[in-house]
Amino acid sequence: MKAYRAAILRFATDCDPGQSAIYEQDGLLLVGVNAQGRQVVQAVGPYRELRTRFPDIAITHWPERIIAPGFVDLHSHYPQTNVIGSPAEGLLPWLEHYTFPEERRFASPDYSTEAAQFFIAELLRNGVTTALTFATSHPASVNALFTEAQTQRMRLITGLCLMDRHAPADVLNQAAANGGLDATEQSLLDTEALIRQWHGVDRLGYAITPRFAPTSTDAQLRGAGELAASYPEVWIQSHVAENKLEIAWARQLFPASRSYLATYGDFGLLRHRAIYAHCIHFDDDDRALMRNTGAAAAVCPTSNLFLGSGFFDYAGADRVGFDYGLASDVGGGTSFSPFHTMLAAYTVGREGQTKTGLSLSPQQLWWQHTAGAARALGLAGVVGNLQPGCEADFVVLNPQATPLLARRTALATSLDELLFSMIVLGDDRLVQQTVISQAIQAR
Ligand code: GUN
Ligand code: ZN
Questions:
Q1: Residue 168 class from Cβ within 10 Å (0-12 exposed, 13-18 middle, 19+ buried)?
Q2: Which atom of ligand 1 is nearest to the CA of 215?
Q3: CATH 2.30.40.10 in the chain, residues?
Q4: pLDDT per residue as tens digits for the range 77-87
Q5: Which CATH superfamily, name and number, covers 71-352?
Q6: pTM of the model
Q7: Is the beta carbon of 303 within 6 A of some atom in ligand 1?
Q8: 35: helix, coil or strand?
Q9: What is the pLDDT of residues 289-306, one digit of tens each?
Q10: Ligand index nearest the alpha carbon of residue 91
């Protein structure tokens, strides 16, 4: 068993997320090993109480530091690290001019491996310990990312990007080299082979990954939906209702569906463990479809601001009641830092927030990037929190990391003020250390 002493932030699981933060000024986190041989939180609480229950244990003490759950990033694109900061009039020209030219490079296993190593190092440096992310349409890109995540023992979910039309040939799925299967059939066969190879290995998970409806044929979406039914524990990830021109295009291509979102439902792609990025331009029928199917939204505020896509309607989501959490959307998104994403969510949350006249609270923002995002993934109680039983993924935050952080956090007179000052002023410098749960071999 290991023990860590510092201030500790975690979340209660049985109350309003906006009021659910629990903060021990002087806390103790005890990490043990569960029946599967994985390091999990054994106990957590005030140092003075727990110390007497475990008098002999050696303690790592981090004075003036804060232990907090590792962040959960619900949506990004690992092959778009080099695309960050590419300005365009909107989503579709951005894809054409910057994204597709970069993604074609991932046909190379070496290029993919270097990018995967950089991406995962950057997540960890920023305190992200669980990520759902896109690969490209090249199987080499998927294998490279899973391989690196396994090396780093990270909880990571990815999948082969499915796109069999309406993009340059070298970023589409490829037909079998021997002239056998066509690109659509081959992409579905590759997906199933990758599920069998990687899903559930260590902490890795597979996501069936149609890029978005406009770049898939009916046959590819139908095949993806069939795989989603055959493998109910596998995730699904895609994009929806991000940009007005994208929506018009999707409506034109799939006129029989009630809405763009409904297109995914019509192909069996809305269910528990299905995560849809953006979900901006929804009506209440779309929101009810999310709620009734158990699908969840990845809210990507830095991306939506950068690409001029619009504002996620938090009030609408809460009124109808579907799950959502925060995401970087690198490289439409502008930062790997969860602090930047939370701050952008605060800005976006002002839109339409008539109830309080303000925006999201710091506890809501932090919850959406940890326990809330974990719940959206169907991983509540597994990651994103530090309650007993959770996998021991955590960050050690240094509120004195910069002169301004030190000055401002010292003035905080409440937990909300402390969290807010870190959200507004924080970045990778705030994250002193990221600790990943280890698998301990039974002797
Ligand atoms: N829609 C389809 N592909 C993408 C992508 O790569 N990024 C974003 N933001 N939206 C998309
Ligand atoms: Zn995206």
A1: exposed
A2: 2
A3: 2-69+386-435
A4: 999 999 999 99
A5: Metal-dependent hydrolases (3.20.20.140)
A6: 0.98
A7: yes
A8: coil
A9: 999 999 999 999 999 999
A10: 1
